[in-house]
């Protein structure tokens, strides 16, 4: 039997039960996850929130309603958060020395190398096959000659790289499509440790990330809308209002189908907007297509919001 295709969740909501009845809340969440593989739940340690993710607003609304009806758990729900990603468009070199001296053994690590977008690197050299997408794959490589940095320290460097990919420097989102090569460095007989190299790699990553044209990526959805012919003008108007790009229009005897690419950030509330312009006769499906750079104004706003949040903490 071929395994079932479960698409990635596209919309996330922060959810908190109003009552302190945690047992029923977790019972409900566990049952819903068992019956629906596209419904995901995780606890975000950073924001201290329980996040539910699914295929769309309506999908999540139904589960919130079912919790209330079947398990008697009322929940407060936050505005859906779009899963942004971070990446770079250019390349740069880094040279970072981490030094710390405080009585006794200090910390010392020096890493040097190159940092670039994975799509700019040679696929064969970094081991990316044709099926893999260079835009989303993170690659860490070491090209140390003459054992300047020992193997265990290089493993610590890789861990530092992976830590940074989990939480990017711009907005704390995951990093996609970056390639980091450590090709030189220095160690100290006493002060060098795995911790020092891990920290040095993290700082080098941030330094190089900001020097390589950093960019915030937003999810672009493939939206297919079907409605009766009489509403064609209204639906095209709606797609334009959502700043969508129409790729294809197919007209049948009674209805038409429009295929378009829209940014997920503009799609909240599309269900009710579509009902309004088609007298409830239109329907739509949407599926994640790819990540693309977000508009400059939005990027600026997201970075400012993240910095404010960091200061509060």
From TrEMBL:
GO terms for cellular component: mitochondrion. Keywords: Elongation factor, GTP-binding, Nucleotide-binding, Protein biosynthesis. SMART domains: EFG_C (SM00838), EFG_IV (SM00889). InterPro entries: EFG_II, EFG_III, EFG_III/V, EFG_IV, EFG_V-like, Ribosomal_Su5_D2-typ_SF, Ribsml_uS5_D2-typ_fold_subgr, Transl_elong_EFG/EF2_IV. Residues 215-302 form the Elongation factor EFG domain. Pfam families: EFG_C, EFG_III, EFG_IV. GO terms for biological process: mitochondrial translational elongation. SUPFAM superfamilies: EF-G C-terminal domain-like (SSF54980), Ribosomal protein S5 domain 2-like (SSF54211). One of its GO terms (molecular function) is GTP binding. Residues 81-213 form the Translation elongation factor EFG/EF2 domain. This is Unnamed protein product. The lineage of its organism: Eukaryota, Fungi, Dikarya, Ascomycota, Saccharomycotina.
């Amino acid at each position: 039997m071929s395994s079932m295709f479960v698409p990635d969740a596209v919309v996330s909501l922060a959810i908190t039960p109003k009552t302190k009845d945690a047992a029923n809340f977790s019972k409900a969440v566990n049952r819903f996850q068992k019956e629906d593989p596209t419904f995901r739940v995780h606890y975000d340690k950073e924001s201290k929130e329980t996040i539910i993710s699914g295929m769309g607003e309506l999908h999540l609304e139904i589960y919130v309603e079912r919790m209330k009806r079947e398990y008697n758990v009322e929940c407060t729900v936050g505005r859906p958060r779009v899963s942004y990603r971070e990446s770079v468009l250019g390349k740069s070199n880094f040279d970072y020395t981490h030094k710390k001296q405080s009585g006794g053994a200090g910390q010392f690590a020096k890493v040097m190398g190159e940092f670039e977008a994975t799509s700019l690197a040679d696929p064969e050299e970094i081991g990316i096959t044709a099926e893999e997408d260079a835009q989303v794959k993170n690659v860490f490589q070491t090209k140390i000659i003459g054992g300047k940095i020992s193997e265990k320290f290089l493993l610590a460097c890789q861990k530092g790289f992976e830590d940074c990919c989990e939480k990017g420097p711009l907005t704390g989102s995951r990093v996609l499509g970056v390639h980091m090569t450590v090709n030189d460095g220095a160690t100290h007989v006493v002060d060098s440790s795995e911790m020092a190299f891990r920290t040095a790699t993290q700082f080098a990553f941030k330094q190089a990330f900001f020097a390589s044209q950093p960019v915030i990526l937003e999810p672009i959805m493939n939206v297919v809308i079907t409605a009766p012919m009489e509403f064609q003008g209204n639906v095209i108007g709606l797609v334009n209002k959502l700043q969508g790009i129409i790729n294809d229009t197919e007209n049948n005897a009674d209805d038409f189908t429009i295929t378009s690419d829209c940014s997920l950030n503009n799609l909240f509330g599309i269900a009710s907007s579509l009902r309004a312009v088609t007298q409830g006769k239109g329907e739509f499906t949407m599926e994640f297509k790819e990540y693309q750079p977000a508009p400059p104004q939005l990027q600026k706003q997201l970075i400012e919001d993240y910095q404010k949040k960091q200061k509060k903490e």
